Design the sequence.
């Protein structure tokens, strides 16, 4: 992992002058080589250095994306797709230069099929924009990674988030994709049928490929009925172990909560400061229940009993929309809130995922490492499916702190792998976790690399990522 706190030179690479000139002629004011725009589109929300592209283009159709990719292939110029910029592992950086395709103008809803409970959208639409479009249909798009990410970016990184324990991840949500391949061809990976046995599952191959196999321009996604009743709840616990045990029991007993989020004491303290809450600064579960009024009441009651059995409480529930939204906004703002614990520090956001039966063990040992290393590192996560995040706050100019965070991250990943988990539950590999992929998958990485060479022989699609 490269932790150098320096930026690559923002100078445009001379070998790309001709293709950039042709693209400028074609796209006019939708093409820019301005340094501020380029640095913005090489930006990451973590400490991985900014590596800006040579230019940023704002396409408005799959055909335009195809034209750009075709020209870039002729000149062997890299192409990096950009959604909302919320990726956390350096997915958007341009270590070899090239052009960044900002997909934000491709944000139309192409079709809503209410009877089939699906819709087709362009890749640049965000989850909040889509749900605003759906508000009169009685349906909603369920995947919620916290950030208002674009659906194309969410598919490219196989995103999940707070609702995944009930509604699944992008892997289960996407029915088909429209993709521009490395040679400029526009292909659809499937039809709208809910299942198919026709050929290889190209949809699943492209989901999670992080823009290295093709550029997603449109996708069809499953929708869900808005529940009759939604109840949120917050419950403090005497320890992380007790909170994890309650979350695990709720899943194993089939109580079906829509969300189960864990925040440790540091994360709660940060949320209190940032979101003006007054929660007890102790390990806490945030929960949400969806269903009929009778069903949600029963779920709340049984979860309250489980929490009490682990010493948790008081169990506070909220059915009013305003109060629910305030609680969940505080959870979604936890990344930004963490910065308040050490103003001026940078955050290294990392995540792992383990089988839920090993979750408490993994979290407890990680907390021990944080204490041993003397770090401030809030823990939070989607504990209903065994996924949690660690947010060490560091001074990137302090070599000793960098060494400690490296040690923490390595220990966290190796622990997750020892427990038969994964080095990343939802952030992806990007450039930040390349070092761990082979530890997790062994020779399977060679098969992935062979697929990459087959579909992108010139290595122009987001090069330097995953492998």
Sequence:
């Amino acid at each position: 992992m490269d932790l150098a706190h320096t930026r690559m030179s923002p100078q445009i690479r001379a070998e790309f002058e001709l293709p950039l000139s042709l693209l400028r002629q074609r796209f006019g004011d939708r093409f820019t080589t301005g340094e501020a725009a380029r640095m913005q589109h090489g930006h990451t929300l973590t400490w991985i250095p900014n590596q800006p592209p040579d230019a940023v283009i704002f396409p408005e159709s799959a055909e335009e994306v195809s034209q750009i990719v075709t020209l870039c292939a002729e000149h062997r110029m890299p192409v990096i797709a950009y959604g909302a910029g919320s990726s956390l592992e350096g997915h958007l950086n341009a270590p070899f230069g090239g052009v960044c395709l900002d997909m934000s103008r491709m944000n139309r809803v192409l079709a809503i099929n209410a009877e089939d409970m699906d819709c087709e959208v362009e890749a640049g639409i965000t989850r909040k924009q889509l749900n605003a479009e759906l508000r009169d249909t009685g349906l909603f798009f369920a995947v919620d990674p916290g950030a208002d990410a674009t659906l194309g970016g969410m598919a490219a990184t196989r995103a999940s988030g707070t609702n995944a324990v009930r509604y699944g991840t992008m892997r289960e949500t996407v029915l088909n994709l429209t993709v521009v391949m490395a040679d400029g061809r526009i292909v659809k990976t499937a039809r709208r049928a809910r299942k198919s046995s026709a050929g290889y599952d190209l949809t699943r191959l492209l989901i999670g490929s992080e823009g290295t196999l093709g550029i997603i321009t449109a996708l069809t996604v499953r929708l869900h009925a808005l529940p009759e009743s939604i109840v949120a709840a917050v419950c403090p616990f005497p320890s992380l172990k007790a909170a994890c045990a309650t979350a695990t029991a709720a899943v194993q007993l089939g109580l079906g909560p829509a969300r189960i989020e864990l925040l440790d004491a540091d994360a709660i303290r940060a949320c209190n400061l940032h979101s003006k809450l007054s929660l007890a600064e102790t390990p806490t579960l945030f929960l949400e229940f969806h269903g009929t009024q009778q069903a949600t009441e029963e779920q709340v009651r049984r979860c309250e009993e489980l929490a009490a059995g682990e010493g948790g409480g008081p169990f506070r529930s909220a059915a009013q929309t305003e109060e629910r939204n305030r609680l969940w906004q505080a959870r979604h703002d936890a990344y930004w809130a963490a910065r308040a614990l050490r103003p001026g520090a940078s955050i290294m956001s990392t995540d792992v995922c383990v089988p839920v039966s090993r979750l408490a063990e993994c979290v407890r040992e990680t907390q021990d490492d944080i204490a041993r290393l003397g770090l401030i590192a809030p823990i939070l996560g989607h504990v209903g499916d065994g996924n949690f995040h660690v947010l060490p706050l560091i001074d990137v100019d302090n070599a000793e702190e960098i060494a400690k965070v490296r040690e923490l991250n390595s220990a966290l990943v190796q622990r997750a792998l020892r427990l038969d988990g994964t080095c990343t539950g939802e952030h992806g590999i990007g450039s930040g976790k390349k070092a761990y992929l082979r530890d997790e998958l062994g020779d399977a990485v060679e098969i992935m690399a062979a697929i990459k060479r087959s579909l992108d022989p010139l290595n122009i699609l987001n090069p330097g990522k995953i492998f």
The two ends are 13 Å apart (CA to CA). Confidence is low (pLDDT under 50) at residues 1-9. The CA atoms of residues 239 and 401 lie 27 Å apart. The first strand starts at residue 31 and ends at 32.
